[in-house]
Design brief:
The protein is α/β, with parallel strands linked by helices and about 350 residues long. The protein folds into 2 domains: about 5-60 and about 155-335, QueA-like, CATH 3.40.1780; about 65-140, QueA-like (Thrombin, subunit H), CATH 2.40.10. The chain is about 20% helix and about 30% strand. It has 8 helices and 17 strands. It has a 9-stranded mixed β-sheet with strand order 2-1-17-16-14-3-12-13-15. A 6-stranded antiparallel beta barrel has the order 5-6-7-10-9-8. The chain is globular.
Amino acid sequence: MRVADFDFDLPDELIAQFPPAVRGGSRLLHVEASGTLHDRDFRDLPTLLRPDDLLVMNDTRVIKARLFGTKDSGGKVELLVERVTGEFEALAFIRASHAPKPGSRIHLSEEITLDVLARQDDLTQLRFPRPVLAVLDQYGQLPLPPYIVHTPTADDEARYQTVYANEPGAVAAPTAGLHFDGAMLGALREQGIRTAQVTLHVGAGTFQPVRVETLAEHKMHSERYTIPQATADAIGETRSRNGRVVAVGTTSLRALEAAAQSGKLHAGSAETDIFITPGYRFHVVDALVTNFHLPRSTLLMLVSAFAGVDTIRAAYAHAIAERYRFFSYGDAMFLEKSAPA
């Protein structure tokens, strides 16, 4: 298939710039496996779930990954930490008039200077004088997606983070999880619906455009994930009860499917560059809670693989016509997996 097959026109005013007034106050488009569409509110999610279902959530925590500094020459530098690779080292995208060379330095303040170690494709390896996460907490800025145009506020720092975020390391939020609040999680527990966690640290590559014409030419970015043994066990128990595994977000789905490429889910940690496109056979996930994704994006290809290309086209056309809000702070979908072709 061609990347152009996943394009669509989206009015700018439908790109959500701010979260809803209250967490969970979004709309929910329910897409049945048959392709039938239902307009609902996110508060209706418990009615779409069954007592033996298992919700799998990504517990990654967004770090303040955007930094601003100067080179030895005085030139300004903007950094986006893509991945923390050690206590004192990280890989970052660098924006500057002239990229700093290995052996040079970047000054964040009079006290904090970063050493430029090496280039790795589009990324630069940096050494920090203090633990990376501590420096980011003190000097960093929340890395809102490029389509959100306002400067991050204190409200963003709270709302661009799931209520169950636990493991720091992501540079973008697993946005389907932003809809859940404590009341929703409590209601799900009362209904007998269990939850389990995976960790996938979302990288900046999630926003990188697909620059090739055919899907087969695209090289997917790599991300690190962890599947706890408790989660693998919970999925096995869910299967034994004929319950469904419901992934909260494409990141949870990618972690689960990456860990089951042999056909059996394996607990543990690994890197994945899995690229899920139409024709992919899903091994673990039966339903998906997700937001609306960018045109021509790998995530739009993923949901098209899950629910069906024609079904997703119809759902997105319906969402645009009904003025749903798109992307990270936007509305959500509940997708049932389409039957294999």
